[in-house]
Amino acid sequence: MRMIRLLLLVILAAVTAACATPNPIVTGDPVDFRHRSGVFSLQAPKDWQPSQSEVETEALASFTEPEERALLIGYAGLLDRRLPDAEGLKIVSDLTLTLLGVSNDYQVISQQRRPDGAFEVSFSLTNRDQKWEGQSIFRDTDLALSGVIAAGEEKTWAETHAALQPYIDSFQVNAESVQGTYFKALEGGAWAMAVPLDWPQQIRPGGAQITARNGRMSILVAQAELAQPLDDAGLTSQAVAALGQFGINAQVAASARLPDGRLKVMLERSDRRIIGYLEQGNSTFVGLFFNVPADRVQDYQAFIDFEYSVFVTFLS
């Protein structure tokens, strides 16, 4: 996942400030905050300095304590799959380091996948002569990796963390806003769908290929004119031929009619699994395919279900 970096100078200033004041950190008087993109919301202490930014498929907001002894960060980014424990914890740890924008003696103190499914990473870092501690709590909900980072000076971290807990718990990601903000329309001659804003596209006569930035999955759409109507076996053969035009040779493993009338096919290729949805009408064939790792199909299912829900064909 491409990590957002737009506010790091602001956050860096907050993290690296040298603080000698003994005044307690004030966390009272909560105010509601909603990111201008609409993808997430949370509460923050009224007097903490807010800042926010976003790129195509990521949003960030930070809140800095007036004397720069603590901070609170909210983040959401597009995610195409559910994460297994080890991968999720590593991603959250790396993302935390990136969003904090400081690497001085950054260390993971503890990490766990909580019973509620959240990835929890506790960490420490050194800022000049000040030792800080913090905690990141992120969730891999449908279509988004989102969560909160809270950090502050080690000498008051226990009290600061306890005071910030209601703000951490207030964080919410808006799934509908994620869908409406991080996707854009893509249309062919006989089909249309929504695809992630920042995924590379290859549009060609009769089809399109949209590839995830990490390269682990791709969406393919094929369109072809038919000389005559096809039965299920003919549609399956057409699907194999259509994938061949993308340089993919796959073997059909299973097929079944869906309640909406489309033919669903499962194809296998080495360590890849291809889930296809086939339709014909008005002398035109349209196939929608998802090419994913064979051992991770279930992790991608929520993303596939969303993409299928916004896939439209113009066939009669």
Q: What this model shows, in words?
A:
There is one protein chain. The chain is of the alpha+beta class. 22% of the residues lie in helices and 44% in strands. The protein has 6 helices and 20 strands. The protein has helices at 8-16, 85-100, 157-169, 175-181, 232-244, 297-309; strands spanning 30-34, 40-45, 49-55, 58-64, 70-78, 107-113, 119-127, 130-141, 144-153, 172-173, 183-187, 191-196, 201-204, 207-211, 218-225, 251-257, 263-269, 272-281, 284-293, 312-313. The protein has a 7-stranded antiparallel sheet with strand order 3-4-5-9-8-7-6, with helices on both faces. Strand 1 and strand 2 form a beta hairpin. The longest helix has 16 residues, at 85-100. It is elongated and about 80 Å long. Residues 2-21 have low confidence and may be disordered.
